[in-house]
Amino acid sequence: MIQKIKFLPSILALLLCLTATAFGQETTGRIEGTITDPSGAAVPGVTVTVRSRGTTEGARQDATIGFNRTVTADESGFYRVQEVPPGFYAVTTTAISGFSASTNPSVEVVLGKTTPVNFQLQTGALTETVTVTSDAVAIDPTDNKIQTNITAQVAELLPKGTNFTSLLTVAPGVRNEPLSGGFQIDGASGSENTFIIDGQEVTNFRTGTLNQNNNIPFQFVQEVQVKSSSGF
To answer: Where are the domains of the chain?
Structure first.
């Protein structure tokens, strides 16, 4: 198992708290959106491709390498791509009769969230491509969970220690609980936490804390997620 981890470009890690009977073991996010024409009417049957960009700007190589998935918008112009590893992607629509192709070259997907990517197609030749850029932060309208996602890009900009737990206090309501060797979230005891790495629970069954050997270094971490609600 140790030899396998050494060759992985990244590992997803997350911490959950106050999930009495059930918790989500998320390792991916989603992209969805609606395709319309200049008047706002839905355009059905458009092919949408989500392709990995290779590396995250300013960060190490990520887990999106080689990701390439294509879906077709339904009769309402709606499309969805599920189980997308966290990272940055280019989302492209193919040209369709009367409309040129469109591409959004920098779409970020984070753990456990839906990233909305809508397209308003422009009239033009089939050989033309319209590039869509936006600095706005995408908000997941379907999300009802209280969670904080610490992406690799964010982690690169923050002061931190060697291992990923040194950044957990970035999330609101999280503080160290040194007497028991854990973390307190929203006032709950550290023994109520659940730690999951790549969908596998690694919580110490006796203390409810994270064993030191599972406190992995940052070079193996793609994203850290902190949850403090049971809306899974």
So the answer is: 2-27+144-227, 29-131
Q: Which burial class, exposed, middle or buried, applies to 147 when counting CB atoms under 10 A from its CB (0-12, 13-18, 19+)? A: buried
Mean pLDDT of the chain: 77
Q: What is the pTM of this model?
A: 0.68
Q: What is the mean pLDDT of residues 159-171?
A: 85
Please, which residues have CB within 8 angstroms of residue 173's CB and are 6 or more apart in sequence? 185, 186, 187, 228
Residue 228, pLDDT > 50, answer yes
Do the beta carbons of residue 193 and residue 209 sit within 8 Å? yes
The domain defined by 29-131 folds into Immunoglobulin-like (2.60.40)
Distance CA 155, CA 230 (A): 25
**Tokens 């920098």 found at:** 106
